[in-house]
Amino acid sequence: MVDKTADLFSEWETYPHNLSFSALDIDANRCHTKLGRESEKLYLFDGEESESQVLQVDPKAAIPKRSILSSSEQLLSYLGKPTTTRLFRIAQEHSWSQLLVTEELFRKLKTALKVHPEFLDVVHVFGEKITASEESFTAFFSHLSPEPSSLPGCDYEIAYNVKYVARYVRNSLKDPFSIRETGVYHNYQMEPAKSTWILLNAPDTLGESLSDAFADSKTSELLGQLRCHALILLCLSENLA
Fold it and tell me: Residue limits of the CorA-like transporter domain (predicted)?
């Protein structure tokens, strides 16, 4: 039996050069160079343990399964399991710190999932900071695969970051709120129906809401997956009420 996961990480060090994208759409050299230049800002140092979370929806299970992702071996194991919806949550210790994942593991994740390089515009918003950066900057991209005439829909990729208001844990009469942001990547395949999500610095309340939504079998369908984006915006805007 052939192991289909064996080559999922092929040439991961060169991402996004190792994926097939037109040079008219993506400047792979610029993307690769910028990733290397900002690696210390974005990621944990080699040898530090990643603390990402994985949520997998097994069609035969009543509730989604949660796991911790800290190694390439674990990632390879997760990717080999059957699922209709898979969610990767990559956190930060705080909003001015690195993503809690190593560069190697994150490049392998993007390679295995064939993540469109335009997602990097969202990724570069995050990472270690020493001063406040431009709070109004947002990134967005969407990509639709050619629609087959025999199907009522099409595959799509979408990514964006959301700025939102959160209350400080500590009380402050002068300014009880702070500006936070969450990065979102979503890939949906029509046939067979399968979704992959990556969330950057998502609050626990959002993770719980999506977990509850994914437990409903109808959420794996196209309309259900699209409604999850509305759920994300609703969860992140709760403090505005």
Answer: 10-221
Is residue 130 over pLDDT 90?
Answer: no
CA distance 51 to 154: 33
Antiparallel, parallel or unpaired: β 194-200 and 85-90: parallel
pTM of the full structure: 0.88
In the predicted model, what is the mean pLDDT of residues 189-211? 91
Task: Round to whole Å and give the CA distance between 100 and 52.
Answer: 7
Q: Which of 114, 188, 126 is nearest to 161 (CA)?
A: 126
Kindly report the CA angle at 187 between 181 and 188, in degrees rounded to 5?
135
Locate 1 and state its tokens.
Answer: 């039996």
- Full strand arrangement of the beta sheet holding 85-90: 65-69, 52-57, 85-90, 194-200, 177-189, 156-167, 140-144
**Helix, strand, coil % over all residues of the chain, rounded to 5:** 30, 25, 45
Go through the domains of the chain in sequence order and give each one's CATH number.
12-240 (3.30.460.20)
Condensed to tens digits (0 to 9), the pLDDT of residues 134-174 reads 566 778 888 887 655 444 556 899 999 999 888 766 565 56
Interacting residues of 68 by C-beta distance below 8 A, sequence separation 6+ = 51, 52, 53, 54, 74
User: Does the structure show a pLDDT above 60 at 241?
Assistant: no
User: For residue 88, what are the β-bridge partners?
Assistant: 54, 198
179 - beta bridge partners? 165
